[in-house]
Amino acid sequence: MSLGLLDAEVSDVTTVTPALVLDGLVKSFGSTRAVRSVSLDIAPGELLAILGPSGCGKSTLLRLIAGLEAPDAGRVRLGERDVTSRPAHRRKIALVPQEGALFPHLTVAQNVAFGLPGAGKLFGLRRAAQRPEVQRLLELLHIQDLVERMPAQISGGQAQRVALARALACDPEIVLMDEPFSALDASLRHSVRTDIRETLARLGVAAVVVTHDQEEALSLADRVAVMQCGEIVQVGTPDEVYRAPASSEIARFVGHAVLFSGRCQAGSVGSCLGEIAVPDGSEGDGAVMVRPEQILLVPPTPGLPTGEVRSVTFYGHDADVTVELDSGESVVARIQGDLPRGRVSLRVRGAGCFFPAA
Ligand SMILES: Nc1ncnc2c1ncn2[C@@H]1O[C@H](COP(=O)(O)OP(=O)(O)OP(=O)(O)O)[C@@H](O)[C@H]1O
């Protein structure tokens, strides 16, 4: 999907005032340190995903940004304004909760209109539901045919679109979304994700999406911040985080990783898959990582590592093939096309990542 104008803005964050700045945020609950000194900048119009396992502090961080929790230390800035001590309703930040949380007694259009200024009372809400801003948001999110329905009469995917439309109706500077697609099935996720991403890009609204789903983070965001144990451990474009993870833990979390320990010398590491090239500058003992899709399976070939196909997990678009090498190690390759059987040889395509031993 093209972000057009936004690409220029996002790529040059140093010359643009960030839409949101988090500076050293800390939050504990008793002895649980949920968020430990998190600092992040989000550019205008940028979509940032915070990716981390359950319990790493993602929702707490979102609640600190929204003003629903007060930090023990650190600041939150929206544009030029420090909003750390402002209550949630005075921050111009909209939070879309996990299940959308629509008002069950209001129609879809009234739910969306709820965010408009002066639309608090039901009488005003009926009129506000007719306003062009509401119609436009409904159209952008492809839910214009649902205006008169009640939340109980729409699907989960439609409810998520309504929840985002309601959040956008407040004209927020930032939209926060907490696991917005977790209740949707795989095919619906894709279409809702695409529409939400396109709507945010069209309106130029910056957003922070919290997820534990790496595929979701990589496919949705302009940048991904990986969070572990209350800390942001890497921030980068989806491509950077996937291809050049900062540690073997991040490599394993952000996709499938094939890891071997070995010694790096003169730009390559010896492994059971032969010499694996790694970026210049690496040296010494550590671990080398390749992604399963970098491992090619070829007919048995003298001089190449060879073994027996032990299992195949077929996903439709590709398949994971576990090969037990004659040297004893098991390796998983991700392949497309014909499913192999029997004996195969393995070759690594492209460079690996090297993580020096601590
Ligand atoms: N109000 C609270 N009181 C006490 N502990 C809390 C509170 N809120 C969160 N925690 C703890 O803080 C840590 C981080 O929780 P948080 O909900 O932010 O994680 P998360 O990454 O969003 O998890 P999940 O993906 O499962 O929602 C957890 O150990 C959690 O138990």
Automatic annotation (TrEMBL):
Q: Give GO MF terms, alphabetically.
A: ATP binding
What are the alphabetically sorted keywords of the record? ATP-binding, Cell membrane, Ion transport, Iron, Iron transport, Membrane, Nucleotide-binding, Transport
Q: Which residues form the ABC transporter domain?
A: 20-254
Task: State the Pfam families in the record.
Answer: ABC_tran, TOBE_2
Full protein name: ABC transporter ATP-binding protein
Q: Which domain of life is it from?
A: Bacteria
- Organism, by scientific name, is Ammonicoccus fulvus
